[in-house]
């Protein structure tokens, strides 16, 4: 009787250990998701180039944003945005001058302007078929920059 009970207990303990190990492995793999998962979900480098091309066209067509972008070197701004989005999404890029406060110092940007830019970016992501959850993850990574970009009272 004791042997039968011991075998049953050992099987139950072994099963519990295997289930626990599987759960731990699943949790570990979720925590160690590739650093560039967001970058890949955005389509990698080519996806980001297409997204930023669409974004720039929308920024120039939007009466709220056009004044900020019509007289800039659009090729340079697009290249910078691709690199910035690549880096922030976990891709292999590295933005050389990432000082947002310095880059936007001469331009009066209100919170309303910043929010309009986000809205236009969301339209571009929608047009490119970027999943809502992916959009939210990218926007969450970009959001802290508002502290350095918004520099004018409302």
CATH topology of the largest domain: Globin-like
Structural classification: mainly alpha
Helix content: over 70%
**Termini separation (Å)?**
80 Å
* Count of DSSP-assigned helices: 9
Explain what the structure shows:
- The protein has 154 residues and is an all-alpha fold.
- It folds into 2 domains: 1-32; 37-149, Globins (Globin-like), CATH 1.10.490.
- Helix content is 70%, strand content 0%.
- The protein has helices at 2-31, 37-41, 44-61, 66-69, 74-88, 100-103, 111-127, 132-142, 146-149.
- Helix 3 crosses helix 5.
- It is globular and about 40 Å long.
- The N and C termini lie far apart (80 Å).
- 14% of the residues are buried.
Which SSEs are present, and which pair or pack?
Layout: H1 2-31, H2 37-41, H3 44-61, H4 66-69, H5 74-88, H6 100-103, H7 111-127, H8 132-142, H9 146-149
Short description:
The protein has 154 residues and is mostly helical.
Keywords:
154 residues, mainly alpha, Globin-like, 2 domains, 9 helices, globular
């Amino acid at each position: 009787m004791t042997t039968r009970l011991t075998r049953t207990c050992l099987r139950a303990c072994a099963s519990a250990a295997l289930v626990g190990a599987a759960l731990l492995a699943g949790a570990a793999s979720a925590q160690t998701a590739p650093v560039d998962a967001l970058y890949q979900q955005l389509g990698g480098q080519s996806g980001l180039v297409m997204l930023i091309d669409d974004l720039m066209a929308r920024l120039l067509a939007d009466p709220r944003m056009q004044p900020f972008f019509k007289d800039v070197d659009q090729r340079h701004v697009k290249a910078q945005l691709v690199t910035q989005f690549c880096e922030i999404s976990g891709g292999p890029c590295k933005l050389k001058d990432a000082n947002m406060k310095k880059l936007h110092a001469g331009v009066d940007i209100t919170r309303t302007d910043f929010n309009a830019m986000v809205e236009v970016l969301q339209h571009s992501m929608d047009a490119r078929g970027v999943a809502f959850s992916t959009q939210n993850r990218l926007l969450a990574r970009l959001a802290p920059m508002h502290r350095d970009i918004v520099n004018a009272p409302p």
